[in-house]
Amino acid sequence: MGKGSDGVRLSEEQRLDWLCLIRSDNVGPRTFRALVNHYGGARAALAALPDLARRGGASRATRVHSRQDAERELKAAKALGVAFVALGEPDYPCRLQMIDDAPPLLAVRGQTAVLHLPAVAVVGARNASAAGLRFAERLARDLGAADFAVVSGLARGIDAAAHRASLATGTIAVLAGGHDHVYPREHVDLADAILAQGALVSEMPFGHEPRARDFPRRNRLISGLCAGIVVVEAAKRSGSLITARFALEQSREVFAVPGSPLDPRAEGTNDLIKQGATLVTDAADVIAVLRPILGKPIELRAEEPEAPSGPGAEPGAGERARIVGLLGPTPVPIDDLVRLSGSSPAIVRVVLLELELAGDGSNATAAPWCRCCRRRGRRNFSA
Amino acid sequence: MGKGSDGVRLSEEQRLDWLCLIRSDNVGPRTFRALVNHYGGARAALAALPDLARRGGASRATRVHSRQDAERELKAAKALGVAFVALGEPDYPCRLQMIDDAPPLLAVRGQTAVLHLPAVAVVGARNASAAGLRFAERLARDLGAADFAVVSGLARGIDAAAHRASLATGTIAVLAGGHDHVYPREHVDLADAILAQGALVSEMPFGHEPRARDFPRRNRLISGLCAGIVVVEAAKRSGSLITARFALEQSREVFAVPGSPLDPRAEGTNDLIKQGATLVTDAADVIAVLRPILGKPIELRAEEPEAPSGPGAEPGAGERARIVGLLGPTPVPIDDLVRLSGSSPAIVRVVLLELELAGDGSNATAAPWCRCCRRRGRRNFSA
After folding, report:
1. Prior bond to A258 cis, omega within 30?
2. Which terminus of chain A has fewer Cβ atoms in its 10 Å neighbourhood, N or C?
3. Mean pLDDT of B21-38
4. Do B258 and A263 touch (CB under 8 A)?
């Protein structure tokens, strides 16, 4: 496979604008996209941000990320050999840009070439069994030998075994923190070893120390980078099953390694197989499913064409109240809000952006939206 | 569930005729059925046997089982508490009579009532792991508690564990030898314990010591008695996989217990799941599939109505040569032989019966038939 996309590169000024926007309070990947779509660019969106959040009812002034901080982050990242690749640029991994909440900027350290290999995630339990570790190694080695990049999360157990076995052929570790906060610390050497033929990637700010809630959110990138994911040993309600759920939502193939019904570490994988995941005893099982998929061109989802509506398209107070009043505890598609409110789609989106930026909405302005989520505050990527 | 069938009982004279016919040389369950269909009864078939075999080219006189021997077998069996239940009689297990090669007479020791419970086979490796044994016990106990009879082969390992765990609820052991030759000998006590609530069944003659080739043949009865079979631990090319193959041919449900890809005892079961068997981690997985099936009436296959053609329908020498000449190394349906030879179906069947009884054919006169099988002599139920 060649480069991931035919996109053009951002200017360094635009890259700074993008970084400022995605690092501002309450701006996630979906909100970023909605803002850029609505205002026609990151710079105009940044200018509109404080006012939007205030109208959404923000209790305190929304922090807009400063240009100085963004410049400092870019400089520090560069010193560590980290490049910020923007959505749509040639180096951006082509499968990742298909997901709804693809990071606008991906911080990449190592070989960007590995991002364009067909990729398979190999994930699983931290407290893996000896057999599980041995199987993960064998699988990752065989997938690497078949020219797949092996993607995982650098965790103890299965993740580390998968990375180690594919160091020579190319492996990608997705970090839950910034590049200067590799977690766990005992895997700093492993992370360094990955750089020779592989890459470390992160969407999180330089300097960000990973918290528990960052790991599920990170998992969507593990599945998003790949054509399929293989779960090797997973208890019920484990992080690997969150990755499997993301994989399903992203239309990725899900594979699982079976185990004894008496082994709690196989409960999650056996359940996945019951639910339709492909049973894997050998890399050939994975390759047989993925080869035909990889042979086909990737279908990029059709982006809704939308002319920037500019500062003119602002809701009046009555219009805003009418739209907010339509939100209830049950999620409702944006199309319904448009129809029921009688407002234009652009106005409805602005009102939802306002609520979002006030820290009062879900991260999913492009997804069904409900007052319930709004009340519970910002929803993160939790299980 | 009540009795298996509304059939009528044979007279003791008829039962002796049936026993003589099925115990005669080269008469298997399919040939038995073809002979009785053609001659209108076992006694007429017995009378025709020597001549049929001679015309088929038997090198030596075909042994017709003597009435004295049959009487002796019935007497010895009775002394041990064994009853001979004939196909079509009320006590004959209703699912078993649906298979093509159902034994005309089933020798039953123990409680015939258990034959009318919905049944599930639990089979697997003789050299099972501790976890496999523990799982088999749990599964059999839970299936028993859900009013299923547990069927197995009385072998060491998984079979014995399944029987032991279902002694109180009812378990059926299918023997590969006669009732006076329980195998392995160390399971004689287990066999005795089964009798209280369950049954031992066999199609083999009293006095028959089981040989290696009798076990695969026996396995078709294990699956035939059941609505589904569960394979717990099985290496590749193991006897349990033969049972699974029979189950598929008999349209029974196939279930398999997963295991680590690094455990050779799970290779067979993981392969079955890859091929579409239902993954089982719990008795509920089995019950969920079987309950709806058990709720439906059993569809008995429509038997081809055929008037006995009597001794008049005998092939001439030229007709016989023409039909034999049509047989080649590739199996050919009997319908094709009828069409190509220009002979009546009855005549074609008689010629095939002749070859069969001469010990020169496959056991499958109702199945595609070929010269190749004829040359290799009688084919048994091998893997």
Report:
1. no
2. C
3. 93
4. no
